[in-house]
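SUBJECT: A protein chain and its fold
Encoding: whole-number codes for local backbone shapes
Chain under study, with its fold:
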Amino acid sequence: MQLIDPNHPAYRPLWARILIVAVCFGWALVEIITGDPFWAVLSGGAGVYAAYMLFWNYKPQSTETATPSSDDEEDKKDAE
């Protein structure tokens, strides 16, 4: 079961992927400081999973495959 789709357009900018992983690990640090190891492990695990999916499995798409060209859209309109 895949919780994060690394090919989703929202994850294309590097800053978004870094921010997601940093927030997860940051929250794990907050939980460790406040003395709640259960939630620290959960948020740390979410950070590890997010890092794996957003950095290791991330395959950047070229702009040609990410967005259809205007010629393709015109061909579809002509076919209708």
